[in-house]
Write a structure and sequence with these properties.
Blueprint lengths: L7 H4 L1 H20 L4 H15 L2 H13 L4 H5 L12 H14 L1 H4 L3 H8 L4 H23 L10 H10 L4
């Protein structure tokens, strides 16, 4: 039996387009405040892994590779605490990403806030937090709809479809 789920992006294109526009605003904020593409993509991949969003993992791995991140670095994300391939800034971002994914447990715990705040500037912290709000929203849309992850050849086309609200 085939399960049918509502596809939020198709069912309410203006809402999805607003989220896509929000994501672009957040990306610009990140760039303006010192969050480089590498850090931005690493935290989005890791958040998507933790949330179990196969679609967003794929999108952000493709973007990470396009930004010059190697397969070795991407493969180390699940074990970042034990890996030597991440900078202190990236470690702070990955720890913050985990806190945002698990925000229902205890908000952003004080020790995480203090540790991350000791490495990132306030502007970087704010920008990275908005990136994490955005990716968690996209993860929830894809997961709630149980969107399939078919083979993909066209990242640009899928990005265009997502921006128009026609994705999935």
């Amino acid at each position: 039996m085939t399960e049918r789920r509502v596809h939020l992006s198709r069912s309410a294109p203006p809402a999805y387009q607003s989220l896509a526009a929000f994501s672009k605003t957040v990306g610009a904020l990140a760039a303006e405040n010192g969050v480089d593409e590498r850090l931005k993509e690493l935290v989005q991949i890791h958040s998507s892994q933790l949330n179990g969003c196969a679609y967003c993992v794929r999108v952000h791995v493709e973007r990470a590779v396009a930004a010059g991140i190697t397969a070795d670095v991407i493969a180390q994300l699940p074990v970042w605490r034990d890996s030597g391939v991440f900078s202190d800034r990236e470690r702070a971002g990955l720890e913050l990403a985990e806190a945002f994914v698990r925000i229902h447990d205890d908000g952003i715990p004080d020790d995480v806030y203090d540790r991350v705040g000791g490495i990132l500037t306030e502007k970087e912290y704010v920008a990275l937090s908005w990136i994490l709000v955005s990716i968690n929203a996209f993860n929830r849309i894809a997961i709630a709809g149980r969107y399939s992850v078919p083979p993909r050849d066209d990242l640009a086309g899928e990005d265009r479809d997502a921006a128009s609200g026609a994705a999935w």
